[in-house]
Queue: 3 jobs
Job 1
Amino acid sequence: MAVIGPSARRIAERAAALARIGAVGEGVTRLGLTPEERRAHALVARWLAELGGRVRRDEAGNVFARVGGGGSPVLIGSHLDSVPEGGRYDGALGVVVAVEALEALRAAKVVLRRPVEVVGWADEEGVRFGLGLYGSSAAFGRLPAQAAERTDARGVSIREALRALGLRGDPARARIRKGSLRAYIEPHIEQGPRLARQGRALAVVTTIVGIAHGRVTVRGRQDHAGTTPMSERRDALAAAADLIAAIARAAAARRDAVATVGEIAVRPGAKNVVPGECAFSLDVRAPRERDVAAVLRAVRVAAAALDRERGVRTSLGRMDRVPVTALDRSLRGLLRRACAAAGVDAPELVSGAGHDAMNAQLDGVPAGMIFIRSRGGSHSPREAADPRDAARAAAALAEALRELCG
Ligand code: GLV
Ligand code: MN
Ligand code: MN
């Protein structure tokens, strides 16, 4: 039997309150380690303090609040940053649902023998510093070397951004002691159409795709746009355009693989100058490691051919990798039972989006995820979720917590 009825109205109000922080038109721009993200963390911290949570902020900029007894906690939550001009639910709704699960447990007077800790992760999207899953990477000991020195487009480093937020500037200090968490459970919108098509409100995630992301730089030669014959050009942007088309073909040739170039910069960037340099982002994902590797290999082969044909030099910079991550099998079973107790027959789904749950699982913390039906895709202001579905997710999460911590 489900714990009690979480409040869809309160969920809608809280999601709306978060969406006002960094609002742009119908969407949200709340990048990681900015004052906007900080304000979102502070708002969530206030809700949690009102629920009796003991709030703390770690040295990576993540916010936590703990309730309940002693021992190793079950961590629940998601991230509070967004992509530029993103939706209001990616990440934020998961945190609101986690808070609502605590509300539900309190209303049902469930005694928590084991603690529950809610987390709002920092900079999951990795837009500003190019480092996805940043906050959870710090907490689970998975930051790449020299992470604090990575800079944003203005040359501000993570270290400096943390200091501007009143922290010491060393995200590695956020490491959670290994073995100190019982489990991690993340509610999150589905971000794709599958649940809506199946007419189901919730799903339980089995596996999260592997991700490789980094930057590609094409160096050509800057020249006059009017006087340089076409046969003598080393146009970095024209070569990049061919390479980007080859990247799309390489991913399309492998089932379930995807590759995206979402950001591009051209130097010097003037209509009457043949581009001398072009740098772009590359994001490759697939549910099988071998397909991620195959797409990257195809990109290198295409780049080498273009270098010869167009007289440019292409380099694939350091690629950050997150391996394909299967979530914890017994939590999957528990979450499906909890969804059933909340009145939802939840199918199992693979996630094409990356999630902080990957870092927990990869650090040996049993991790599970509940997906909430959403519409309008994701990473866009069209993102939409029904607060009643979110309330069902909160009921399922509360049920799972009662089993794990009650
Ligand atoms: C985050 O949303 C990601 O999948 O990149
Ligand atoms: Mn997300
Ligand atoms: Mn996202």
Job 2
Amino acid sequence: MQEYNNDYYLAQILQQNMRYTEETGKTKKCLTHTFGCQMNERDSEILFGFLTQMGYERTDREEEADLILLNTCCIREKAESKVLSELGELRRYKQKNPDMIIGVCGCMVQQEGMVNTIRSSAPHVNLIFGTHNLHELPRFIYEIYTTGEKQIEVLEKETGVHEGLPRHREYPFKALVNIIYGCNNFCTYCIVPYVRGRERSRKMEDILQEVRGLVADGVVEITLLGQNVNSYGLDLKDGTNFAGLLQELDKIEGLRRIRYMTSHPKDVNEELVKVIAASQKVCHHFHLPIQSGSTAILKQMNRKYSKEDYLAMVELIRRYVPDATITTDIIVGFPGETEEDFQETLDVVRTVKFDNAFSFIYSKRTGTPAAKFADAVTLEEKKERLQRLNDTLAEISKGINDHLQDTDMEVLVEGPSKNNPEMLCGRTDGNKTVIFLGSPDLIGQIVKVHITEAQTWILKGTLL
Ligand code: 5AD
Ligand code: SF4
């Protein structure tokens, strides 16, 4: 079912862009700026895929771009203010180049009232679309080309699963693969279910076919994406589930590593852990957002597990996968969080000994239930809790990493190290970052590295 005709729009735009090149000797250039999570990164691959088909070339310089697209995030207030301030800055480029297309898409615009906020605070924006009609980018650009009018279209509800969209991948050796869209969990602090809609799984065969194609293309590591990958398949009502998908993916020859993001602790069960333990390819890395260690706060968050449930799950993982690395997300300063509640979080952190964690100060999101909860904790106190939490996490991570010193680890080489481009940077099966000296020819390969130095968040080593 395809009620839009992208091929037509794409061909028309390409023709116009080619004519532009003939007339001016220049190629149309585009810039996409992605905020937020890997879901957005994956969506931007589609957007950039479309733009490439339209004949646009990529640029990193705003001043030479003919089209700028911001793919936005609204998980916390900070993400949103970054977008709004960037939009303000883009005004001067549009003044210099009035034909420039400035677009805003993604999660932020799905929020009630946001389209109006953008329209009034950034009138130079001439394209706004949401997460549910990303696949219609060609039509929007075509309309702007032919009518010159602003295109503003945000759909309130999800529109199913769209297969066969183009993509432009950043890395030849690793790839993001959507398996389920949306979220049904409604954690009380979280905006995601309101901006990404209800859970929709892709058909298992479509996923397998995509991964087989990626592997044939040279991909050795895939990351399966979903707001809650554990719900995968349940809406298909044909017996498909996440464990079954992992088993099928495991059989794909040439694929070396399977990762996934994100797992909900309430849905981790023995069957899944056993499948992961028995798998040749699923990485022994469990990212399980705990959010808080206080059962009372977890209840307020609507997380559907207690502190004890979480600890029991960690025990289950350690029993079947003794070398598992476990990472998490933690929110401090949720409305009503007392010092005692926070101490419960620190207690879980010390008991589990997380390898790493993303820690956040609670950010009030309008439209979520928690936005109406009484919040007596001051920002100062929240910042202080975050600092104490981060100090605890760092100390634990250093202790774990110290134990890895003088061991040999398999590392997928990802590219030059950001801080030291002379060195290579890669990741272990457990998702630890390793820095070492080696030839750039190794990028994309899995190599063995002897760990010589353990730091708090990274390991240094020598190539074997
Ligand atoms: N405030 C702070 N952190 C949040 N997260 C989600 N919503 C909020 C919020 N309102 C965090 C959670 C989630 C991660 C992706 O972002 O920890 O796991
Ligand atoms: Fe947000 Fe909870 Fe859904 Fe994760 S599971 S996206 S935290 S509502």
Job 3
Amino acid sequence: MNSKNALPKLEVHMIPCLEDNYGYLVHDSDSGFTASVDTPEVEPILRALDEKGWALSHILNTHHHFDHAGGNLELKEKTDCIIIGARKDADRIPGIDIQMGDGDIYLFGKHEMTILETPGHTRGHLSYYFADSDIAFVGDTLFALGCGRLFEGTPEMMWESLQKLLQLPDKTLIYCAHEYTASNAAFALTVEPDNGDLRTRNAEIAKLRARNKPTIPTTIGLERRTNPFLRPDSANIRATVGLRSATDTEVFAEVRTRKDRF
Ligand code: ZN
Ligand code: FE
């Protein structure tokens, strides 16, 4: 009899798409299930499936934007996969089969997938967390050193979503949907110049990007220490934006506004 740790961890395969999007395949060698996290572009996803020898069983949509759900219908037609997305955005997720909401658990083979509603960028944005493999797919909610623009939500809503992600263990690997890290780092240094961890990380990012290497995945622990959108309690950030005695939500909102103008 195998120990309780016998279930192999999920494998993640990154697929650069479009200008700066990342699509991901998540593969469970136990069940043979393979999910595409979002569908930014059909051809590279089909090519990756072919190279890996994996058959697409699911699409996990984080949100309705075209660079995340634009390939849904073509991939569904070609592979007969099941599309999972937000109940709150069921009318905007093409081909949706299974509607999910906050706290729902879906069994991906034997792997528990926990659904976190993380609205702010869009009103129905979902993140997908696989606790046994320490991975989370966060779409356009959390970026390496950044967070999504507030297209459909309020600062309060986004700050609450980010706090939900901050509850995940520090070792959790965070797979976000865009390579925005270098410009996020430049901005982060303007609001928290005294953060030594951030300066170290900025140098590492510059090296990776100079060789055209991805900066993803990041981890919750690293983001907690360096991402200005997760650090409204930082005295340095509060001093820089001139809000020493404001609430965390107010500081977050100000940092988000400054990033929009950066
Ligand atoms: Zn988006
Ligand atoms: Fe996007």
